[in-house]
Write a structure and sequence with these properties.
Length: 426
Amino acid sequence: MSSKDPYQALRIPQFRIFFALRFGLVFAWAMQFVVVEWEVYRLTKDPLSLGLIGLMEVVPAMSLALFAGHIVDQSEKRNLLVKCILGFLSISAGLFLFTWPQITGDLSTDTLIYAIYGLVFLGGIVRSFIGPTVFSLFSLVIPKEAYPNGATWSSVAWQSGAVAGPAIGGLTIGFMGVHWSMLLIVAVAAVALLLLLSIPPQEIRNKNKGEPIGQSLKEGIRFVFKTKEILGAISLDMFAVLFGGAVALLPVYATDILKVGSVGFGFLRAAPAVGSFLIMMFVAYFPLNRNAGKKLLASIFGFGLCIIVFGLSEIYWISLVALFLSGVTDGISVVVRQTILQLYTPDHMRGRVSSVNSMFVGSSNELGAFESGLTARLFGTVNAVVIGGVITLVTVVGTGALIPSLRNLDFNNFLKEEKEDEKVSS
């Protein structure tokens, strides 16, 4: 297989299954988050309640992240992911029941809200394991020379699910209602489980199996902070997502500012992912390997500008275009960051590195949702989004100045050095 082949990774049978599996999981998770957002705002009419959804998920996800990474590195990845999906299925089934009017008709609004928050909290526990498990499984179904191409297609799967999940969620809320939308989520998660079962159990590449948890966690944290390329990439994305995330306030924009209803909300929610999906398809044919660091910094700077435009807009099509372009810039960032993580992380530390990444980046989505909800309550929705975009711009400039190794990163040079090292060692 040629490294210039845009379908290099997809020609590997197990990776094709991985691609479909990842799409299904992201689709189900993204759609569920949108449905929960809509239902909670319908019940409360309070933007802070949207931030609390993120907080309920991020608390367990951050608290258990390092422990989960240790468990992942010590475990067989396929079977562990099976358990994670079963957990997600149970939570989705619970949300299906709590959105069933025939069952919950006599329950108070507060009771329903607490039940939803409780299930979202359990989802945070599952998420702390599912992220590093999927990240680790990636390296077991694809050879190292195909990592850059595989990272692109893995990101395409992620963004495809993020496109379809919110869009279908918005449409099904309007045409089927929240309750039956949750049933569709259960069905998609069940299909993902069946796909996973077609992948055989994988070898455990950690030579330190049985290593004490304290020593294991210290080693993982030490590695991340020692590897400036990884530390810079995840730190940059954490602050950009934390302060530049307008997505959590989309129900407010759709309902109160743009006045476009649930269908318009679905398209607004999907617009960033559509932009990301299209740019990732482009990147599959025209890789970002050369001057990857500079492209990462430029893309996140562009993301911040798009968020500012969206925050100020009161015209639906301008808001839609701004979100679409924010997805384009974010898509470039995602591909570069995922490639950095896959190339620079040794096999025996993937669970721990992914867990640290989830604490920096993944959890910042939920913390960003809480920050956006709180800032909107204190300063107003528009001010909250614009301030976040400005902070994103400042963060990019500071990171580029402080971490020159990230700014000068080039994947072609890295892969060439890796091949030379392999020749020397052989």
